[in-house]
Amino acid sequence: MGGQPDRSPWPGTLAAGTALVLGAWMVHGGGLHLPPLPSLAQGFGGATSPALLVPPRARAVPTRIRIPALRVDAPVTGLGLDSAGRLQAPADTDRNLTGWYRDGITPGQRGTAIVAGHVDTRDGPAVFYDLGTLHKGDQVEITGEDRGSAFFVVDAVEVYSKKGFPDAKVYGPAPDSQLRLITCGGGFSAAKGYDANVVVFAHLVRSLPGS
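Structure (tokenized):
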């Protein structure tokens, strides 16, 4: 398999959302247009279908993510950690760009893979602006550099305060192939930016082998 198949590579002090853009669009003339948040029915408190365990995919660096329900079709770039141990943000010069932690497992391997994206940039809403509108059962496809794909189904969409972000719940180890999509959300102030993160929880349901 390669990588770290049985545990999350994320340190407990990592706070992915704090490194994402802090409402640049609203600060620089966009006005107050808060991104949508998920309903309670889309959280873990609502009905959830049991996960069907499927064989994990071989390691393949992700190159593209597609979310049909949001009309997202975006490239994936590798991200590192900053000096504070937080996930660095994708470049804010491209609104249609997501990032994957390059020292972690790749999407589809056993464990928990993370893909982050901006909610907005100076130019307007960005790739994950509508992340909070996803529903349980929606599909996410991630293509790898081997031209194969991993397909995930959304289990829940939740919002967490950045001050009380549940690292273990979001980044913790998993016995199957899990995916997390993360962006900023919640309330907003010009001084501090967004005060929460929107997190999508999904699990692998099938994969297509690469060439």
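The CA atoms of residues 5 and 123 lie 38 Å apart. The two ends are 16 Å apart (CA to CA).
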